[in-house]
Amino acid sequence: MDASRIKTELLAGLTVALALVPEAVAFAFVAGVNPLVGLYAAFFVGLITACIGGRPGMISGATGALAVVMVSLVSQHGVEYLFATVVLMGLIQIVVGLLKWGKFIRMVPHPVMLGFVNGLAIVIFLAQLGQFKVPDGAGGLTWMEGSQLYLMLGLIALTMAVIWFLPKITSSFPAPLAGILVVSALVLGFNLDTRSVGDLASIAGGLPDFHIPMVPLTLDTLQIILPYAVILAAIGLIESLLTLNLVADLTGTKGGASKECLAQGTANVVTGFFGGMGGCAMIGQSMINVKSGARTRISGIAAALFLLSFIVIASPLIERIPVAALVGVMFMVVIGTFAWTSLKIMHKIPPIDALVMVIVTCVTVYSDLAVAVVVGVIISALAYAWNAASRIRARIGTSKEGWKVYRLTGPLFFGSTTGFADLFDPLNDPEDVVVDFIDSRVVDHSGLEAIDALASKYLAAGKRLHLRHLSPDCKKLLAKAGDLVEVSVLEDPDYEIAVDYGHTFDRAEKTT
């Protein structure tokens, strides 16, 4: 690795670390814990996942998706129960990684991915609006007005302009970091009256200490923390694995889903024992990192170490950075994260895909990511099942023995059993009827039940039903069913090439 690559990685890591500070502080406030709890989580989760995660260049830390779940636990039981929950959350994620369940993320359809990206972009945007509120003197917050608002907007616009135009001039320096430095120099040089990081909270602190969560080791404690741990583990893994796929697409590389699950779990176990609030992958910071040119683990490791140095050594300097500069960076992340092409293709893709995209976006904004993804996958799966159910049909012909042959096309499963039954005419069919599965397959138990019901109808009419060309997995299903399917299964001879069984088919197909 040459010096230029190392420089790019370190500068990208510094940019990410600066952007992590207000995010970690804000999410700590959301969860109802001390800002250092969020900062320590960002350090440990970011460092460990950068070292052993499944996607070099991806950034992890304390996130809002987890914080909104934690708030009720902290308010009801205290921060020690949160630490214990984070440890259990990590253990659950490790188990998921060991079982290699992370591979099921490939079941998430592309419209769900687009909805997730768009929803998360909106969430990141809405999270920045809180920076436009200031204390009103009565213990509450009020929106900025007048010159204070105009100055804030001007500095944000300047940051975004630097980030937009600098890459057109040079790519040797990360544009987000340049935007932060330019605006910080302007504010400090002209002593402009605008909010800084220090106005949010002090980030000064020492090195994190090992701390065993002070909770009773009883079943009552487990009953309290287990539901939260399961929810947090699911949200954390879904967000992390979707971010992993997104970063992999942006960089043209592949990521290891199971490896990422193990890394996230390990990071959260360690974080829980060092007084952190836990975390997962952060799409906003990951986008900053990738857009800054980072492609290796160095940037993530550097970001975590820079963040720790901010806490221990450089807090007075970091606290002077204008909030407007960091908001400008995040606004550019929003622009880069939102899948604008999804708006152009809405009228070109199937209506159900467009609906899924919109629903996932809305649920991500108004609920949380895990619920949104589950809802999107369920809707997509139901739509696929409905479409597949309508595709079962049969070509009807006659074999050389004079038997009537139904040559099926399409899968036989729970959604197509009704259509399957409607294809046949047991009362008027001849003595022997063949169901040829050469272009079909039995998928599930409902398919077996449908065959059994059909066989019963033919037996009741004094006729015989035969099955042909069952694929190996279909035969396996029938073998498992035992006496459930009482039909005569005609074993076809071994063959290497197409065999002519003497079937003559009508041109017309029978469909449902």
Number of helices: 20
**Globular, elongated, flat, extended or rod-shaped: what is the shape?**
elongated
Total number of beta strands:
10
- Percent of residues in helices comes to 55-70%
Low-confidence stretches: 481-488, 492-501
Q: What about the largest sheet?
A: 6 strands, mixed
The helix-and-strand class reads alpha/beta
Radius of gyration, rounded? 30 Å
> How many domains, as an integer?
2
Neighbour order of strands in the largest sheet: 9-8-7-6-5-10
N-to-C terminal Cα separation, in Å? 63 Å
Run of helices and strands: HHEHHHEEHHHHHEHHHHHHHEEHEHEHEE
User: What amount of the residues lies in strands?
Assistant: 5-15%
Average pLDDT for all residues: 86
Structure description:
The structure is a single chain. The protein has helices at 3-31, 35-52, 64-77, 79-98, 110-129, 146-169, 175-189, 197-200, 219-251, 257-272, 283-291, 297-312, 315-318, 323-337, 341-344, 351-366, 369-389, 417-422, 445-460, 472-481, and strands spanning 60-61, 133-135, 141-143, 280-281, 393-398, 404-412, 432-442, 464-468, 488-489, 504-511. The protein is an alpha/beta fold and 512 residues long. It has 2 domains: 3-129 and 145-380, no CATH class; 393-511, 2-Layer Sandwich (Transcription Regulator spoIIAA), CATH 3.30.750. Strand 5 and strand 6 form a beta hairpin. The radius of gyration is 30 Å and the shape is elongated. The N and C termini lie far apart (63 Å).
In short:
By secondary structure, this protein is of the alpha/beta class. It is built from 20 helices and ten strands.
